[in-house]
Amino acid sequence: MPQPTTFAAKLRWWRERRGYSQLALAGLAGVSQRHLSFIELGRATPSRAMVDRLTAALDIPLRQRNAFLLAAGFAPRWQQRDLTAPDMADVTRALDFTLAQQEPYPAVVVDRHWNLLKANVGAGRLVAFLTGPAKSDAAVNLADALVAPDVLRPHLVNWAEVVRHFIRSVEADASADGRAETAALLDRLLRYKGVRAALRQAPSAADAGPVLPMHFRKGGEELRLFTTIATLGTPQDITAQELRIECFFPMDDSTDRRLRSWTRSRPKPKRG
After folding, report:
1. How many whole angstroms separate alpha carbon 155 and alpha carbon 153?
2. Contact status, residue 35 vs residue 96, Cβ threshold 8 Å
3. Within a domain: residue 256?
4. Distance between CA 247 and CA 172 in Å, rounded?
5. pLDDT score at 88
6. Helix, strand, coil % (nearest 5) of the chain?
7. CATH number of the domain that 41 lies in?
8. Is 13 in the same domain as 90?
9. What are the distances in angstroms from CA 202 to CA 156, 164, 192?
């Protein structure tokens, strides 16, 4: 559902989306319910400080807080820097450190819509094993790679279980950030063959464990991994807030040995 454009309508839209009454939001923001009602009716104009208080109380993402400021007649506050920007050097260094520490296990950095931004060597080895060497200059969306029928799906034994959990996480993202782009991603994923059928399936025994494995099989090799997803604490930048670091861990000794064996593989030197 498209977001409204006026401040009053946006505030009401987000309040209802978050499930707050006017009284509850007023209490969270430290304002009177009467004043909040006047703002939602367009009878009172919020100050910049009031915009900050209301959007913070509603836990609105920084990108959308800029839209609130613009709707109230103020300049945006939150920047969206490129990862290569000089003042993002500390963030980039931390990301690179995390990826390096995860070796030989795979790890990737993605944005809010699962576009691949960084990957460690272990991730490259896993992709090369499953699908062949990736093109270094090709844009990769990990959501499409997981859900589409012709990338990871042929090698993912429990594809239906994994995709069911993943789609629910994208639905939660779409609900949380209210962006048309996230809704479009969800719609695109749901259009892939077999996805809606997977969502209708009852949970299997694999869903009962503490974490859901990703069970890959190719030829005579099998890999079982689970993932963790981390975000940056106290972000003050849109790009930084939307970053995700996904780390893969082996779920059994054979997977651990296989991942470690790839680090010992060396191409034979050419003769002559």
Report:
1. 5
2. no
3. yes
4. 20
5. 96
6. 50, 10, 35
7. 1.10.260.40
8. no
9. 18, 10, 19
CA 175, CA 112: separation in Å to the nearest integer? Answer: 13
Average pLDDT score over residue span 75-89: 95
Q: Residue 270 pLDDT > 70, yes or no?
A: no
Nearest to 17 by CA among 182, 184, 178: 178
Rounded CA separation 170/152 (Å): 18
Which residue intervals of 44-158 are DSSP H helices? 48-57, 62-71, 89-102, 121-131, 142-147
Least confident range from 36-40, 237-241, 262-266: namely 262-266
CA distance 19 to 241: 23
Q: What's the pTM value of the predicted model, to 2 decimals?
A: 0.89
DSSP output for 147-181: HSTTTTGGGBTTHHHHHHHHHHHHHHHHHHH--HH
**pLDDT tens-digit readout, 239-248:** 999 999 999 9
Residue 159: give the domain boundaries. 86-264
80 found inside a domain = no
- Tokens representing 26 are 């007023």
Burial class (CB in 10 A: 0-12, 13-18, 19+), 187: exposed
Higher pLDDT among residues 208 and 83, named by residue: 83
Assess if residue 164 is contained within a domain.
yes
* Torsion angle defined by CA atoms of residues 164, 168, 174 and 175, in that order, rounded to the nearest 10 degrees: 150
What is the SS3 assignment for 38?
helix
Please check whether residue 21 is in contact with residue 53, taking contact to mean a CB–CB distance below 8 angstroms. no
